[in-house]
Amino acid sequence: MTSPDTAPVPVAADPACVRSIGVVGGGQLARMMIPAAIELDLPLVVLATAETESAARVSADTLLGRHDDPAAVRALAERCDALTFDHEHVPQEILHGIEDDALSAVRPGSAALVHAQDKLVMRDRLTRLGHPCPRWWEVRDAAELDAAIAAAGGRAVVKTPRGGYDGHGVRIVETAADASDWIADLGADGALLVEELVDFRRELSAQVARRPDGASAAYPVVQSTQRDSICFEVIAPAPGLDEERQQEIQGLARAIAEDLGVVGMLAVELFETVDGRVLVNELAMRPHNTGHWSMDGAVTGQFEQHLRAVASRALGDPSPKAPWTVMVNLLGGASEDLAAGAAAAMEADAGVKVHLYGKSVRPGRKVGHVTVAGDDLEDVRARAHRAERLIIGRADAAGAPDETAGPESGTAPRPRTAPQDPTDPRSAA
Amino acid sequence: MTSPDTAPVPVAADPACVRSIGVVGGGQLARMMIPAAIELDLPLVVLATAETESAARVSADTLLGRHDDPAAVRALAERCDALTFDHEHVPQEILHGIEDDALSAVRPGSAALVHAQDKLVMRDRLTRLGHPCPRWWEVRDAAELDAAIAAAGGRAVVKTPRGGYDGHGVRIVETAADASDWIADLGADGALLVEELVDFRRELSAQVARRPDGASAAYPVVQSTQRDSICFEVIAPAPGLDEERQQEIQGLARAIAEDLGVVGMLAVELFETVDGRVLVNELAMRPHNTGHWSMDGAVTGQFEQHLRAVASRALGDPSPKAPWTVMVNLLGGASEDLAAGAAAAMEADAGVKVHLYGKSVRPGRKVGHVTVAGDDLEDVRARAHRAERLIIGRADAAGAPDETAGPESGTAPRPRTAPQDPTDPRSAA
Ligand SMILES: Nc1ncnc2c1ncn2[C@@H]1O[C@H](COP(=O)(O)OP(=O)(O)OP(=O)(O)O)[C@@H](O)[C@H]1O
Ligand SMILES: Nc1ncnc2c1ncn2[C@@H]1O[C@H](COP(=O)(O)OP(=O)(O)OP(=O)(O)O)[C@@H](O)[C@H]1O
Ligand SMILES: [Mg+2]
Ligand SMILES: [Mg+2]
């Protein structure tokens, strides 16, 4: 099922070859880099805030410290040839310092990463580059917000430009009063992003890997479904996407990676609109939840691919190994005991791949994921969702995928009242 | 390509469920268990002799100590629910002590493991069970050895019953004088194993996983080719094996696992004779070199499967994910710099999967392996062998698979003069 170019390309030993990688952040994305690093024999050092964090539990080499503590991040950089990220919350100033002092290669670099850190910077840059976005406005106060809402047609999506994840920092509003708390919190230079409420048929995600020298590899475009604004189900490849549209979207993702100078994995979250357009939602420059399927479903999983890109190695074949792979997230639910649930899911279906992150269960928290691959999409989906229910401990384990699992027309983010917690960026994925 | 039984089997939380596993030995087999343990969130503790051993380099939890030091192995057992092995060199008395004191579940147990530790015990037991073996003799002195050689037809294979690996402890002899050193070393109760020199068409390997409750899963039978008595190439599934013969061999492996009470992975090394019979060569009760293909090529890799069996979890689907998967070992050669070689191999072929063990290079030492999967066997083989040559640094990297790589009629072990090194069981695989 793979079709690599098999012509031998003799390559001399690269003296600039990266021999060790530091990962800022100890969440599940850092954790899932570890198996890939072991197989490639590429030493990883994880900067985590506690020994109990997801990646720190299984890392052979952990530094304790915060992602926003310059001394901690610099100490990591000093130990490694290249620095990469579990999440996008490392302050720009810290990265600038490391880049200026050439302590280690920052991959992706600060100039690229800012577009995954700040949604206003991202919207502005993509718009100037001519990449398709929803209509958007930058607002600084209630009057500007009301004007934007009116321009958007009476309802709009407001986003805090920085620090959001899993829908924290995203809210549907009809009047500025619906975001009065965020407006009150704006500092002197602060602004909010307002977007039209996109009438989407479904959400897609396009992942590409890019090396420092510009070589890139594009994964099949996938369909992702969020539940309560959290990624819940991913189908690879996206059903019903014709080859031409697929290549167009892969081209868009490659162009963004090239335009912004991304190194490593880039995920482009997209809306497919009811009227057939494709718009960029946001960017992530790291392995992404919508790419977890590739660990089991592609010749080269996204975690291995990210490390290969960051280490300036040749990129691997991103081809799928089966006609369909479905990933379903494990979001904390009724059961505290994931091990027992996982045992039940594996007992029920020998083909399900269970990935647990070593995190304690809290309602809605991402604690793992499952994948199932096969020839028949509906069968594969049903099996993946059943496994999810068995592990999470929901009562309806024997039933069909629940109603939130399918592609839905016009799914919109639910208003969130819980404030974002900038001290817990570890849920990023 | 998977065909699991998808009927849901509700399973209650198992109070006896294994929640942590200790691995005796810090070689590459222990190392490759770690990624699987991370994904299953099953804590592993590795007993290694040095921080620099293959598994110790990447393990988050390492105890330092020797496999033949009762205190060290008991300390490991006390920390874990179940004990398993990187190699088969742990003395029986140590295992008996742990079993008697119920410090932890020993999997496989001592009574099973002895058949992988002592080739005379294995031959005797398999013969009594009626499983097919080469003709064999137990000899205690030169006169008995000469008699056995004569009975075998003038040439025979002599084996030290314990401590052998990678052909150390295996020698072709024509007279007792050819093994005079081994005879001189025999203690009062000592004996050597003599076998007829089997005229084999090729070597096969059958792997099964078995749980404590007897549930088992059989992998496709593979073909393995040794070079200088070390496993070099594995083709999965074995070419030209008809379905009936495959099931017969899988049945043999399952029967041996059941008869001996194996828990975990069992590899049955086999000869397919020129006259069409299948004979057991030897047994390994752990992940085995002939199963490395499954990490990339099967729904459930052998390391994950071993942990699932040892932890009393449901076994995973052993089905292959591609028509052919070829594994080639990386045996230390000209180049010290595996990272550069691996970079070149990945540059030449995006579909090759490289696994490095973090070991320093010594001639002939197993330092890693590669796999390639695909539809066309000759293409897949050529790609895997080219990758091997690029990594190992052999000059003929652009050529075809070398002459030792193909199935050969009558391949026999080369006489070995290097004495076995019982203090370095870490090469076991
Ligand atoms: N302009 C929009 N129109 C309609 N729906 C939107 C819009 N923007 C966001 N959404 C919905 O809200 C979800 C979360 O938005 P977004 O991806 O910007 O937030 P986030 O908190 O950064 O999420 P992530 O966890 O992906 O980082 C989207 O996946 C989509 O379902
Ligand atoms: N009776 C025999 N007749 C012919 N060849 C044999 C015989 N026994 C062993 N060999 C050859 O020698 C190789 C090594 O033998 P064996 O597997 O018993 O040794 P080992 O040192 O335990 O190897 P391993 O590394 O598999 O543990 C076999 O793979 C086979 O090629
Ligand atoms: Mg998003
Ligand atoms: Mg052998």
UniProtKB/TrEMBL annotation, chains A, B:
It catalyses: 5-amino-1-(5-phospho-beta-D-ribosyl)imidazole + hydrogencarbonate + ATP = 5-carboxyamino-1-(5-phospho-D-ribosyl)imidazole + ADP + phosphate + 2 H(+). Catalyzes the ATP-dependent conversion of 5-aminoimidazole ribonucleotide (AIR) and HCO(3)(-) to N5-carboxyaminoimidazole ribonucleotide (N5-CAIR). Belongs to the PurK/PurT family. One of its GO terms (cellular component) is cytosol. This is N5-carboxyaminoimidazole ribonucleotide synthase. Residues 392-429 are annotated as: Disordered. It holds the Pfam family ATP-grasp. It comes from Brachybacterium nesterenkovii. Residues 123-311 form the ATP-grasp domain. Pathway: Purine metabolism; IMP biosynthesis via de novo pathway; 5-amino-1-(5-phospho-D-ribosyl)imidazole-4-carboxylate from 5-amino-1-(5-phospho-D-ribosyl)imidazole (N5-CAIR route): step 1/2. The lineage of its organism: Bacteria, Bacillati, Actinomycetota, Actinomycetes, Micrococcales. Its EC number is 6.3.4.18. GO terms for biological process: 'de novo' IMP biosynthetic process.
